[in-house]
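haha ok so turns out i had the wrong file open the whole time. this is the CORRECT one, sorry everyone. sequence first:
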Amino acid sequence: MLELVSSHACHAGEQRFYRHDSATIGLPMKFSVYLPPQAAHGRVPALFYLAGLTCTEETFAMKAGAQQYAARHGLALVAPDTSPRGDGVPDDASAWDFGVGAGFYVDATEAPWSAHYRMYSYVVDELRETVLAELPIDGARLGIFGHSMGGHGALVLALRNPDVYRSVSAFAPIAAPMRCPWGEKAFSGYLGADREAWKRYDASELVARADARKFADGILIDQGLADQFLANQLNPDVFEAACLAAGQPLTLRRHPRYDHGYYFIQSFVEDHLAHHARVLGR
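then structure:
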């Protein structure tokens, strides 16, 4: 059962924040939902947004300025927290890029993380099923997008579940996590030493094996060229090459002067919602 934590009028719709007991995580989880004004009259398509390292279910709703465009296109926006939280949740207090706030959208297999860190299954199954059961959202018209760690998550969830998500985009994603320090740290901690197991959560590995026709409308990625993490963490060129080899349409836009933060996301979020609206409106 969903507990409504708060609700706020926003661009003629409602920005809501929820809490619920998650069977997948084994703990209470929080998420945000923006319902556009069109949701008062029937089910609407929805985008799932996955946030980056250290973020919460509030970050995108408060910083991206996306609600005005969601209202225009009649899109719901669903954003989960980035990891389990609470008493008894394992954490690495010395690291901001592993543990609480850094679930990496994987199902951990290594102790102690495997008890609660199951963000992949939580997002693609439990959260999706919960919002479809409780809110006026059309389960046949779902898209997914995200930023940084969440951009990685969005690409992976879409490529592994093209029957669930009809559209996908990302802002500055960790596009080849097996080749960067963030990904190697997270995957070795959550998944163990077997690099073959890591491939299931690496978008650049997955797209090579995916049916490119499943995203015939293309994947949209925006990347700032002043991003402080571009050189050693993000690897958009690796994903671009993998898409080219696989025949997967990709629009990778590179923007001078833009960094990794939410001012960058604010600048291009309108284009992302328009991209998803075109695909989901068919």
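The chain has a mean pLDDT of 96.
again sry for the mixup
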